[in-house]
Each structure stands twice: as C-alpha cells, then as structure tokens.
Amino acid sequence: MINWFKYRFIYFGLSLTLLLIGGYSLLTNGLRLGLDFTGGSLLELKVNAPLSELQPAIEAETDVASLQVSSDNSFILRSAGLDSAKNISLQEKLNQEFGGVEEIRFATIGPILGKELIRKTLVGLGLAVLFILVYLAYRFQDKTFGICAVLAMLHDSLIILGTFSILGVYLQVEIDALFVTAVLTILSFSVHDTIVLYDRIRENRRLHSQEKFVELANRSISETMTRSINNSLTIIFMLLSLFVLGGVTTRWFVLALLIGTISGTYSSPFTAVPLLVLFKRKG
C-alpha cells in the first residue's frame, strides 16, 4: 500500500506555490470585471471586414472595453458607454464604411444590476460554505471533516481566481456571470470528490478498526484513486474539446471549468485528506 501521507510536504508545497503566485496577482492586479459586474453594453455584429480595419472605426464612435472575433466576420463589442442611440449611429457608420452590417444581439446591463450580482455571488458562496460545514459535520459526526473539505474547496476557488487574475493581466480576460457559474460548479465537484474519499475512510474505519487513521487514509486514497482519475479524465477530455472547438463566448467559461476540475481532482486526495490526518493527529 502506498504511503500517500509521506509526500504531504510535496503536495502542500505545490499548492502553496500556486496559491502565493495567484494570491499576489489578486492583491496587486485584482480581477478584470466584465460588463455583468460593472454595467455597460454588449453588441455582436456581423461585418464583412477584418478586425484591424473595424477597430479604429468603432473606437472613433464609442469607448471600447473589448472587441473580439466570435466567428467568421462576427465581432463582439463590449462598451461602458454604448446606448441604443449610439448603437444605431455606430451601425450606420459601419454600414457606410464596410456595408452589409447585421446586428446579432445587443444587451445593456445597468451598474445597479452589476452590484446586485456581486452581492448575490458573495452571499451564495457564504451559504454554500456554511451548508457544507453543517452537512459534513452531521454526516460524519465530526466537524473536522467539514473544515478540511471547506479548506480544499477554498484551495480550488483561489486557484481559479488567481489564474484568471493573471489571465486578466496578460490576455485581458474578464470575468462575468458565466465565470461565477463555473466557480460554483467546481466547488460542488470538489466537495463531491472529497465526500467520496471521506465515505471510503469511514467504511475502512469499520472494516479495519485496528489500523491507525493515517493507514486508513492511505488505504482509502489508493482504493479511490483510479475511479477519481477516470471520472475526471472523461470531464477533462470533453472540456478540452469544447475549449478547442467551441466559440469565443464560452471559451473562458470552459477554461475555468477545466482548471477547477484538475484542481478539484488534485485537492481531494492531496489537500483534504492530508489536512484531515494532521487535524486528527493534533486532536
């Protein structure tokens, strides 16, 4: 049987390195908030012109937060100052210059809605943490299980947030409502993986009551490792396909899910369980 706990300093060292890098970026640069949080407008147009020619023409008419290619001859414009009147004026100008302009979608989000989304996101995360703590403490009759699961969940959250903070600096990636959805989805995945391991520890505790807790933990990790990797690989391959073949509008949402899936698969056996063993030793 592999002594997984013996390598805990490697796991903790890797996690600490990633968390410090991401944490430094979060503290110094923060996150690039998208229009869902700051308010503004999103306009998707189909124009028979290259981005290099289109961008100067748009910048002459309105402020440009970002301008991305979504598909062949389709572009997504995000702007804080684009209202309905300016949208009509912009399309008339582009139609005169390039011809054949077609509006695919236009949406405006007020700053009040953006602030409300931030508030609801924070409340949702707080309630999720509270419910997980209570549920795991009740299910395993030990609050230590809940604390370690939440720490692993926070580990995964910070990995995603730190990564997107860095992407915001170098690739101007913004976070939006889809990003919040991805983070909440990954938190549930992380906790689910951890609960599977905890259940196996509880079962082995009943079957091998003579073993020390660290031995039960090592046994449980070994017994669930193959299943966990296989399950995660099916998700990872699907997400990789979506990232490569999907459109630009969902690319960063898929990347957040991909990073979170990898981090969640890692954190359950290599963060949650080693922390649980350490807590049990001190207890």
**What integer is the average pLDDT?**
89
DSSP, total strands: 4
CATH class of the largest domain: Mainly Alpha
Major sheet attributes: 4 strands, antiparallel
The geometry reads as elongated
- CATH architectural label of the largest domain: Up-down Bundle
The ordered H/E elements are HHEHEEHEHHHHH
CATH topology of the largest domain: Multidrug efflux transporter AcrB transmembrane fold
Number of domains: 2
Beginning-to-end CA distance, first to last residue: 25 Å
Strand content: 5-15%
Determine the CATH superfamily of the largest domain. Answer: Multidrug efflux transporter AcrB transmembrane domain
Give the neighbour order of strands across the main sheet.
2-3-1-4
Q: What portion of residues is helical?
A: over 70%
Describe the structure.
Its main location: membrane. The chain crosses the membrane at residues 9-27, 121-138, 145-171, 177-198, 229-246, 252-279. Residues 94-281 form the Protein export membrane protein SecD/SecF C-terminal domain. It comes from Candidatus Beckwithbacteria bacterium GW2011_GWC2_47_9. The two termini are 25 Å apart. 72% of the residues lie in helices and 10% in strands. The protein is of the alpha+beta class. A hairpin with a 2-residue loop joins β2 and β3 (74-79).
